[in-house]
Amino acid sequence: MAEPKTATIEAEERVATTFRAQVFGSIARQKLFAFASLIVLMVFFGFASPAFMQVENLLGILQSTAVNGVLAIASTFVIITAGIDLSVGTLMTFCAVMAGVFLTNWQLPLWTGVLAAIATGAMSGLLSGTFVAKLKLPPFIATLGMMLVNKGLALVVAGDKPIYFSDSENFSTISQGSMIGYVLPSLPVPNSVLILFVLAIAASAVLSRTALGRYTFALGSNEEAVRLSGVNVDRWKITIYVLAGAICGVAGLLIASRLNSAQPALGQGYELEAIAAVVIGGTSLSGGTGTVLGTIIGAFIMSVLTNGLRILSVPQEWQIVVTGVIIILAVYIDILRRRKL
Amino acid sequence: MSPLVSVQNVSKNFPGVRALSRVSFELLAGEVHALVGENGAGKSTLMKILAGIYPRDGGEILYNGELVNFASPRAAQMMGIGIIHQELQLMNHLTVAQNIFIGREPPGRLGVFLDEDKLNRQAREILAHMHLKLDPRAIVGGLTVAKQQMVEIAKALSFNSRVLIMDEPTAALNNAEIAELFNIIRELKARGVGIVYISHKMDELKQISDRVTVLRDGHYVATVPTATPLDTIIGMMVGRTLKEDVQHPPLVAPRGEVVLEVRNLNCGPLVRNVGFTLRRGEILGFAGLMGAGRTEVARAIFGADRIESGEIIVRGAAASIKSPADAVALGIGYLSEDRKRFGLAVGMDVASNVVMATLARHLKFKFVLRQQAIRATVESFIRLLSIRTPSATQQVGLLSGGNQQKVVIAKWLARDCDILFFDEPTRGIDVGAKAEIHKLLRSLADQGKAIVMISSELPEILRMSDRIAVMCEGCITGVLEWKGATQERIMQLATQREKAKAA
Question: What is the rounded CA–CA span in Å between residue B260 and residue A162?
Fold first, then answer.
């Protein structure tokens, strides 16, 4: 009987390796592939236009990635649970408007505005999460609803016009100041980028090292199994949406601070760019796998593309078309590679 | 000895169905207690109530002599009642250790971060304690079903379970793996764990259980010692005595001409130089261990996977099959082992499923459904295969496993397929319905269909096949005539690795 057993074990190992290669290798490869694409894009634009590699332009790219990157981090959490969050874009705007209400309309100190934005985001996440976990609404519908609710509320609260932060001087430094530049004058990386990276590292740690992260993956892998293990699935799911919402609050602060105003009409469309960044970064829409690093790379690919096309004077309408094509291509190439395995 | 668990007069209603009606059941410490009954008899429901997954509508449960009321699966687990579901409930993307401790992660630094090392260490202790050969860091999705099941067992035991409920634990295991599982069960038993064992496989119950409780239609029938003759137990399950002898040799119909010939077929590591012939009116059994490549051969011929090389000759003409559509056009049908995933649209009604592959014939103006023609087709198949369904508009998901299988068969027969691949045709189907499916396969062969039947149950292979092809590691290691075939001979061929390697 010894022989058939060895046979089984070897066969098992083979199966195990292929599965691991397929599922887990594919994330690593997708990240590598995404990173390589980013480099290729930068080299291409670098050669196509000398303006691209200018420090100022590169800082601009970093700056513009900050907002999208933060939103994409929020989306990453929800997408790993096999959910989707369509509300991140308009929620960001609503959070910015709430910061404006606190700082400009009510003339309160800066920290209250920061808190207001993040709390607004968390509240909206609490609602989305509750709809998904308790009312069993599909995440697509729950967050589609919240997308419109947030959009409407932003317009109502702001009274259809932008709120300017001209009274709180320090507000713009949240995004535009440079703590790094203060220490290293030759490297004036704006604070928004610093915030993006700090947030990315924190999110990455949460995902890989905490119970919240463990349940995020577990829910996306097999929700029923988690439930039957006695885990309070609803509570964790809601927590994940709250966290995503709070991160959107940070994005709201970043964009308001960069524009030095809360623009209530802005926001829609950001959620799709965030989802695109997540997917390009190798996170599966069917849940269970994904990384923050991949998402950040994905977000940079999107910004480099937008920036490079603008520098090459491609009309804006066409930039949008190209972005769409790139998303389809990126995901298709990934599918092709998986099929080859 | 007072019982570990005593279930008294428990009832359970689901909308429109009385699933359990005053059922009683007793489990002793250190006992393997088999729970049998046809599908829908209420076995799983009873166990889910015991494990705190469903609330009960009436009756009492005593555990260690005390009245208990589990509000959740976690509450039952904490009290030492673990359940291993028929469909394993694991998180495939997580590691073995992460699965075992899901929801109970040991706190690490700052009480926030997880201590993965500690997690792995604790998991390793549990696994070693059970003599399970598993790496706690292995990703569960990459393990075989047998190993995944061990993860479930380890998880259940990590709660210091005193009661372990196993629902069809061997459904997806091969013989070597079953032997290993039985060793684990015996060890648990020696430690005083009470085990409830739900299975359709009667020979297994004989091997492993001490007592058998029979349920039928949500009612308690009897509890008998395992030594009770099988016929009596089956008789209690179905409410009548099955006269048919399980070891009945196949009735050999006169074989017709060769309708399918495969030569030197290669497709991935599990289809190596495969060749065989299939004649009209015969049932060719495909035997082998799990993962020997039987399903892969069927998929390659059916065009589901792209073949690397080889010839497929259908009715004397070389065929180029590049997709399942090509195969179907040649009259080849494949009935997957996973009916719910690949065979049926379970949310749709019987009629829609039966005409799924032949919709084009039931259209006018190539677009509008011809309702009457569809009804006629479906009614004729419901009669022909005696599909037990209240009507053609019944949702397929509500039928029993055996009747679902018949719906799939009807779908392919409607398509005029006369070369049929059945992959594990009776998996998860209860004893009574199994005999009926067997009879149906035989009558299809008698009508001139050519049938390939893949099965992991040797008695089924021996009983049904006119010839038996045995596979090992992607190669056919031998083809036996039914007369000379024995379980021993098949197992010998199924484990012939040298021959497989040489090929």
Answer: 75
